[in-house]
User: Fold these one by one.
Assistant:
Number 1:
Amino acid sequence: MNPLSSFQSIPNLDNYMTDLTQVQEWFAHYWWIFPAVFIWAFVWKGIALWKSARTGSKSWFVIFLIVNTLGILEILYVFIFSKPSKSVAVAQPIQTPPTPPDQAAQQPPQAQ
């Protein structure tokens, strides 16, 4: 049996090539979708990685690092699976103790 005989029986090979040309035209016209999707997924991946690292979820961190779901899994994690934070920590100014007066000022002047 000839291994190339299966290729000769492909129906509508001309229609397939026409469809391929239409796909190429679509990609040429809507090229901007790919950078937009990349930025969308990159932002959500960054948020999810940051939040999973802050909460100590090592398994979620590894999943986000390896699996690319175009932001879908990341959005679900941020809004559904992660524990909501109880309060937002606000930085307090550091209070320094009062400085003691200079030692020279405390000593009485010496008579000459």
Note: The two ends are 124 Å apart (CA to CA).
Number 2:
Amino acid sequence: MSTVATTPKPGQQRVADSNAPKVYKLTALDRCDRCGPSSQAYVRVTMKETGHDLLFCGHHYNKFKFDLVDLIDHDKTINEYDRLDTGNRLIGSENS
């Protein structure tokens, strides 16, 4: 069964299609500022004072996230760390 997108009536909100694929903003060209070209960035933070962006791989974001809490603009943070979610399975545990 297919659904047709309609314009919501005044006072109504459009419901997001839960089956729609998530659109990511960071690409394979975005690299971790700490690792350099060896690691893809999954988190972009913007510094409050300067407006400059920092890119982090998952490892380095986890390492520095508590130090950055008061220094970054949380509204501009892009966190795509969920792209690394593999269902929390351990390697070799496919048969368990």
Note: The radius of gyration is 18 Å.
